[in-house]
Design a protein that fits this description.
Helices cover 39% and strands 29% of the residues. The longest helix has 24 residues. By secondary structure, the chain is α+β, with helices and mostly antiparallel strands. Strand 2 and strand 3 form a beta hairpin. The strands form 2 sheets. The protein has a 5-stranded mixed sheet, with no helix packed on it. Strands 1-2-3-4 form a 4-stranded antiparallel sheet. The chain has a single domain, classed as PH-domain like (Roll). InterPro entries: PH_YyaB-like. Pfam families: bPH_4. Keywords: Membrane, Transmembrane, Transmembrane helix.
Length: 147
Protein backbone atom coordinates (compact mmCIF):
# COMPACT_ATOMS: atom_id res chain seq x y z
CA UNK A 1 0.00 0.00 0.00
CA UNK A 2 1.33 3.46 -0.91
CA UNK A 3 1.12 6.41 1.49
CA UNK A 4 1.78 10.00 0.51
CA UNK A 5 3.76 12.24 2.83
CA UNK A 6 1.83 14.59 5.08
CA UNK A 7 2.57 18.27 4.60
CA UNK A 8 2.03 21.01 7.14
CA UNK A 9 2.32 24.80 7.07
CA UNK A 10 5.66 24.82 8.89
CA UNK A 11 7.37 22.85 6.13
CA UNK A 12 5.60 24.82 3.39
CA UNK A 13 7.02 27.98 4.93
CA UNK A 14 10.46 26.40 5.21
CA UNK A 15 10.39 25.29 1.55
CA UNK A 16 9.21 28.73 0.42
CA UNK A 17 12.09 30.35 2.29
CA UNK A 18 14.57 27.85 0.82
CA UNK A 19 13.38 28.52 -2.76
CA UNK A 20 13.45 32.28 -2.15
CA UNK A 21 16.99 32.12 -0.74
CA UNK A 22 18.19 29.95 -3.62
CA UNK A 23 16.65 32.36 -6.12
CA UNK A 24 18.24 35.39 -4.47
CA UNK A 25 21.67 33.74 -4.27
CA UNK A 26 21.62 32.80 -7.94
CA UNK A 27 20.15 36.09 -9.21
CA UNK A 28 22.22 38.38 -6.96
CA UNK A 29 25.43 38.28 -9.10
CA UNK A 30 23.58 39.76 -12.10
CA UNK A 31 23.01 43.04 -10.29
CA UNK A 32 26.54 43.73 -9.07
CA UNK A 33 28.91 42.20 -11.60
CA UNK A 34 29.14 43.54 -15.16
CA UNK A 35 30.92 40.37 -16.31
CA UNK A 36 27.66 38.46 -15.87
CA UNK A 37 25.85 40.57 -18.45
CA UNK A 38 26.40 38.31 -21.46
CA UNK A 39 24.21 35.71 -23.15
CA UNK A 40 26.34 32.63 -22.39
CA UNK A 41 26.63 33.37 -18.71
CA UNK A 42 22.90 33.98 -18.46
CA UNK A 43 22.09 30.72 -20.30
CA UNK A 44 24.44 28.61 -18.17
CA UNK A 45 23.45 30.27 -14.92
CA UNK A 46 19.74 30.00 -15.72
CA UNK A 47 20.13 26.32 -16.61
CA UNK A 48 21.89 25.64 -13.31
CA UNK A 49 19.21 27.53 -11.42
CA UNK A 50 16.32 25.75 -13.14
CA UNK A 51 17.95 22.34 -12.62
CA UNK A 52 18.47 23.00 -8.90
CA UNK A 53 14.98 24.44 -8.47
CA UNK A 54 13.19 21.59 -10.25
CA UNK A 55 15.31 18.97 -8.45
CA UNK A 56 14.52 20.52 -5.09
CA UNK A 57 10.78 20.81 -5.75
CA UNK A 58 10.52 17.26 -7.15
CA UNK A 59 12.44 15.75 -4.24
CA UNK A 60 10.13 17.46 -1.74
CA UNK A 61 6.83 16.75 -3.50
CA UNK A 62 7.51 13.13 -4.50
CA UNK A 63 7.86 11.62 -1.01
CA UNK A 64 6.10 8.25 -0.66
CA UNK A 65 6.11 5.35 1.75
CA UNK A 66 5.26 1.91 0.34
CA UNK A 67 4.31 -0.99 2.58
CA UNK A 68 5.07 -3.98 0.35
CA UNK A 69 4.71 -7.67 1.13
CA UNK A 70 8.16 -8.09 2.74
CA UNK A 71 9.56 -4.60 3.22
CA UNK A 72 8.92 -0.91 3.75
CA UNK A 73 10.15 1.28 0.90
CA UNK A 74 10.79 4.94 1.71
CA UNK A 75 11.09 7.16 -1.39
CA UNK A 76 12.02 10.82 -1.34
CA UNK A 77 13.33 12.21 -4.62
CA UNK A 78 16.57 10.33 -5.37
CA UNK A 79 16.63 8.78 -1.88
CA UNK A 80 15.38 5.20 -1.55
CA UNK A 81 15.46 3.07 1.60
CA UNK A 82 14.30 -0.53 1.54
CA UNK A 83 13.71 -1.81 5.09
CA UNK A 84 12.72 -5.49 5.49
CA UNK A 85 9.96 -5.99 8.09
CA UNK A 86 11.99 -8.59 9.97
CA UNK A 87 14.75 -5.98 10.54
CA UNK A 88 12.41 -3.42 12.17
CA UNK A 89 13.09 -3.33 15.92
CA UNK A 90 10.72 -0.60 17.09
CA UNK A 91 8.81 2.49 16.04
CA UNK A 92 7.47 5.49 17.88
CA UNK A 93 6.04 8.94 17.30
CA UNK A 94 8.47 11.84 17.50
CA UNK A 95 8.45 15.61 17.36
CA UNK A 96 12.19 15.79 16.65
CA UNK A 97 12.13 16.21 12.88
CA UNK A 98 15.38 18.16 12.48
CA UNK A 99 17.96 15.54 13.48
CA UNK A 100 18.76 12.20 11.92
CA UNK A 101 17.74 10.58 8.67
CA UNK A 102 14.34 11.95 7.74
CA UNK A 103 12.22 11.76 4.63
CA UNK A 104 9.25 13.88 5.59
CA UNK A 105 7.44 17.19 5.17
CA UNK A 106 5.46 17.40 8.41
CA UNK A 107 6.16 17.80 12.12
CA UNK A 108 4.00 14.87 13.24
CA UNK A 109 6.41 12.02 12.50
CA UNK A 110 7.10 8.36 13.14
CA UNK A 111 10.64 7.16 13.79
CA UNK A 112 11.34 3.59 12.73
CA UNK A 113 14.39 1.84 14.18
CA UNK A 114 15.84 -1.11 12.27
CA UNK A 115 18.84 -3.42 12.23
CA UNK A 116 21.50 -3.16 9.59
CA UNK A 117 21.95 -0.30 7.23
CA UNK A 118 24.04 2.76 7.85
CA UNK A 119 21.46 4.97 9.53
CA UNK A 120 19.57 2.49 11.77
CA UNK A 121 16.49 4.73 11.95
CA UNK A 122 14.33 6.78 9.62
CA UNK A 123 11.75 9.48 10.35
CA UNK A 124 8.66 9.55 8.16
CA UNK A 125 5.28 11.32 8.19
CA UNK A 126 2.55 9.52 6.22
CA UNK A 127 -0.79 11.31 5.69
CA UNK A 128 -2.90 8.58 7.27
CA UNK A 129 -0.74 7.62 10.25
CA UNK A 130 -3.34 5.39 11.93
CA UNK A 131 -3.77 3.15 8.88
CA UNK A 132 -0.02 3.13 8.27
CA UNK A 133 0.66 2.07 11.86
CA UNK A 134 -2.03 -0.64 11.74
CA UNK A 135 -0.49 -2.18 8.63
CA UNK A 136 3.03 -1.83 10.04
CA UNK A 137 1.90 -3.44 13.31
CA UNK A 138 0.44 -6.37 11.35
CA UNK A 139 3.62 -6.76 9.29
CA UNK A 140 6.01 -6.39 12.27
CA UNK A 141 4.39 -8.12 15.26
CA UNK A 142 7.76 -8.48 17.06
CA UNK A 143 8.61 -4.78 16.84
CA UNK A 144 8.06 -2.66 19.94
CA UNK A 145 5.64 0.22 19.50
CA UNK A 146 5.89 3.34 21.66
CA UNK A 147 3.31 5.97 20.78
Amino acid sequence: MVFEAARDSHFRTLMTKAVTNMTLMLVFPFFFNQATHNVWFILVWSSIYLFLLVSFIVSVTKIRYELNENYLLVKGGPIRSKIPYDKIISYNTTADVYCGYRVLTASDAIEIFYEGGVRRSVKIAPKDQETFLEILRAQCPKAQMTL
